[in-house]
Prior knowledge:
two-stranded antiparallel sheet; 8 strands; globular; NADH Oxidase; alpha+beta
Amino acid sequence: MGDKLPGRLAQHPTVRTVRGRQPRRPGILDADWLREICLDAGADDVAFARVDDPELASEVEHVEAALPGTKSYISLVVKMNRDNIRSTARSVANQEFHRSGELLNETAHRVVRRLQDAGYRALNPSATFPMEMDNYPGRIWVVAHKPVAVAAGLGVMGIHRNVIHPKFGNFILLGTILVDAPISRYGQPLDYSPCLECKLCVAACPVGAIGKDGSFDWLACSTHNYREFMGGFTDWVQTVADSTDAAEFRSRVTDSENASMWQSLSFKPNYKAAYCLAVCPAGEDVIEPYLDNRKSFLDLVLKPLQDKKETLYVLPNSKAKEYAERRYPHKRVRVVDGGRPQPSATP
């Protein structure tokens, strides 16, 4: 068994115990057994994808760096409570995002422990944060959960760039486990899209980040929705640094904005919108109220978010600024730079 060891090491009690037992040689993971332990651990759905799937080629170098020898992905789904996400009280929605993320990470942790105890090497990157911030503003995620879920057959990306599960809709969070073994059966991509192309996500986005033609303005989305994440935090700090005194700072940043940033720093960062998720009626468990009475659904779910008075964060001279000012005159539009590096002045 293994290399010949120096005498002193060979006589160590741990070495003698291990060498005296039957060696474990983990083989192909049984898909049914693996699915069962994932569901028992807390997942609401699970499917598997191959690392060498051509659709996931862009992930290979990153997962290989994280867990050398990765052979398979285990894609996990945890449901979120829909009415929490739909509430105009965004503290409720953010608590749902954060709590669901905690449950998903706990689920993945339990599964990895089972795999480790069975003799496999496995790793569960965070479903959300923390990420590899040393790489910011480049790629900060260890593995892209969305394309893995799509390849495994757990849903299809909607025009709002969120995965829509055929049963649970887009009210889900996704996680991925890397494992160093093949699995006996892999999922296949869905042969249809659960997206209804209803364009409610287009109507709900307060900064016009989602186009009717399916286009997506990532800068508009990230500048507003991620205001209290990486770039927005940098912009806020720049405002502190640029202000000559407290009076000037408070003239530039409202008390509620400061309190909101404090809350995100203290209790996990809060999303400003994510309204595209809130209004999506797709999914077998979700669609019935929309089918019963679409006007009532819009009045109940979409209109309160559109009518809400709030601050919208946009880049200068952007389409998002023009859209927000035209479409939502009752919302305060604030121009920020998103914390992005500014070009140096020419001497």
